[in-house]
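Entry for the shared binder. Reason: the reviewer on the internal report wants the predicted structure included alongside the sequence.
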Amino acid sequence: MWIHEKKKLIYLCNPKCGSQTLLAALKRHGFINFIGEPRLRESCRRQNSDIETAIEKYNGNWMHACMKTIVKFMKVIGKNPYDYKYFTVIREPIDRLISNFNYCKFDKDWHAFYCGPGEINTKNALLDFSKEFNYTYKGKYNYTINDYLSIGLEKSDNLCTHPMPIIDYTEILDKRFNISIFKLENMNELKKFLDSYDICFDINCKLNSGKYDSFKIRNIITKENIDKIRNIYKYEYTYYYKNF
């Protein structure tokens, strides 16, 4: 949960959408992780027992919590979620799925490399901590992108980098919220938005991306899986990526 209290801004850290690069800039301008910052959590515990209880019961990912989880948490600690401006970044769904597939290096059980013993904050590998999960990682298996799209997408849907559709990740359909959505492919609009809050963001900075041939991988995706993606991410293709 990334928040700037004075500016009343909340960044919804949508995974595999340039989030690490953007976070680096936001943290320089005072954004904090309300759940993931140990010192902040301790301070909140001393000030408000309700916050302590809320943190103990919080079952969402510290980094990539969806908006529904954040809104629920804010209500518990006595903050009005409608007082804040929310913003996030989306990415063309096929590119995003390819990125996640290459990043996770799934094992045979569709566990990502960051699930295994010895990883930092292993528990934070999940979107929902309350669901049972066997924290293991047995090394990268020889799955293909089509295996991931046809089977693995559902098998790995509780992992923190799982590419949720924007209508599930945000409350964009609830008009009571003030939400801005920006495309990774057009960061100029995001820069204008951040400039209006006196937040400097260099759109020419290098994105933290892996090395792989996205075009080559796209070309081997089956029509069945393309249709599946377009159905799952129908909102994105209807309102943001009509020409894809």
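Summary line for the report: The radius of gyration is 18 Å.
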